[in-house]
Amino acid sequence: MSAFTFCTVQYESGDWDSAPLVPANVIDSVARYTSIEVNPTGAIVPLASADLLRYPLAYLTGHLPVRLSPAERAMLRTYVTRGGLLFVDDHNHDIDGVFHKSATEELARALGAPLKALPNTHALYTSFFKFPDGPPTTGHELNGWGDNLVHANLFAHLIGDRIGVLYSSKDYSSEWGYHPDNKRFQSVDNTRFAVNIVVYALTR
Amino acid sequence: MPSRVDRRVVERALRAVGLASLAVMAVQAWRAGGASAPVRVVNASALDGALATLPATGDTLVVRTDTALDGVTTAWLAARRDAGSPVRWTAPRAMTPLAMAIEPSLDPGGGVRALVAAPAASAVRLADSVGAVDSGRVAVSGVGFAIATPVGAAVARVDGQSVRARAAAASAPKTVIVLARAGWEGKFVVAALEERGWAVDARLVVRPDTAVVQGAPARFDTARVAAVVALDASAAPVADAIGTFVRSGGGLVLGPEAAEQAGFAELRAGTPGARRAPVAIAVSAGSPRRALPLLPIDALAPGAVALEQQDAAVTVAARRVGAGRVVQQGFEDTWRWRMTGPDGAREAHRRWWASLVASASPEPLSRATLSGAAAVQTGDAPLARMVAELGAPTPDRSSVQRADAHPGAIDWWWGVLALVALLGEWASRRLRGAP
């Protein structure tokens, strides 16, 4: 059986590689908390490439405006339709930023429908660790950085009950962007929600 | 001119021949007295009309046919024979033995499995009341078709012979339990079965003490569950319970890693061999599974049959265990087929997994019993039925005709011979002036 590989999506516009430490940290958490067989290194795959279909969970982030090419839109549709889950995180952690506006617009254009707020009772929040209040807040939300808001919900494109695209304005890319060894300085590991996303993707 | 003495010798010889011929005729007449019942030789095509006109008892009936008779006609002939009238049948050429069974698929997607048994290399054509449905060639002893539910009775034709069978109504699908580690294979097998219409209970292990659970995957109850899909080693702790479930009439689909576990050794259809790398780089529409890693089923268990092969390797095999069935497949990472395959791969992957589960799910006994009352059965083997009920065919049709068309009759040429000999003897005597 193939091991889980964390995949970062490379897209033609913007800065897809703005959070280079996130993959290693998520991989560390998956290995730390679960017995899921996980590859020690992630993969980086262009959004327009058919290779993306080899990674049913993929992570996309950035600060800059996002404009998808027709090939990227088509592959995104195929990916989601076939059962993939794309996790998109706004590295700006605001709702008026250029990434948020352009990325949500592009996702709606590719998927044919705007993203909707994901209820905080969704199975995503109990797939491994329990998050009864919905998505965990990030340090940047709490310290007033960005739009000075604590975002109550994540957004999603659902296919039936299954999440095809998960969208966050909470800036998990900053929250999880540190060396895994530094987890020991935290009283509560803030990457636990990343484990929920991975477990959800692998089981739903 | 022969002398008077020579003529007497010839006359005596002629008289002897004439009397001998009369004696033979007398013996034949005496023998004919014990076989006085008349014989009717009837072509199968005219049998329907003859049934009404034949006397109830007495006549020996010889049916001449080049195709196996239907069940009703065979039963009528058997009843006639049992009532005291001899019945035999003859065929101008050897008939192709043929049998067909129709099983409704438990796959919620519908359809049936038509299983046709025929000699190796036979070309089988399958049709229903609407028209042609499918065709195939027999590899060893039979060929199977997964088809939509036929309209009316399905008819399989091979070499001029045909067999009919009707599908029984399918029962409501039960639940399928999927046991796997958290991973792409388990996720996409569950997705495929759910998309096909199965209700799926699942237990996907995230770590030894934690699993994502859907439904009640620990209740192995044949009243509720059609089959268990055990994909990997995470199912090993409940192998004993699964074994009890299978022996009680449940189905089991074993993935390659699960089949390697000691707990499944008594259930598996064969021993998994060494892992083989994919034969093809990319998933293709024609042979998608060649792009998947394979643990071939090397040594089949007693009673197991190979259902699918790749080159010389067995990739899917099945066997009966107790009242249940086990289907073992050897492919790893079938999710890659669905995700990376060409258009239609998702549907093909879904169909394949649904067919494995449907193959492992035994039919309810009640349904088979009910279907037996129908005029067209869910399965039939007309030639075998004819032989069982009427006996083997009379091998030589011409001998049947000679023996049966006039049993006990006096051969006419003995009379001619007697007449010629006695007339010759009488004429010779009169010409020489003797009294």
List the main descriptive attributes of the protein structure presented here.
heterodimer; A: 204 residues; alpha/beta; 7 strands; B: 435 residues; 8-stranded mixed beta sheet
Q: Please, could you describe this protein's structure?
A:
The complex is a heterodimer of chains A (204) and B (435). Chain A is globular and about 45 Å long. With 204 residues, chain A is α/β, with parallel strands linked by helices. In chain A, α2 (70-82) crosses α3 (98-111). Chain A has six helices and seven strands. Chain A has helices spanning 22-33, 70-82, 98-111, 139-142, 172-175, 192-203, and strands spanning 7-10, 43-46, 57-62, 85-90, 116-117, 155-159, 162-168. By secondary structure, chain B is an alpha/beta fold. An eight-stranded mixed sheet of chain B has the order 13-12-11-14-15-20-19-18. Chain B has a four-stranded antiparallel sheet with strand order 8-5-4-21. In chain B, strands 7-6-9-10 form a four-stranded antiparallel sheet, with no helix packed on it.
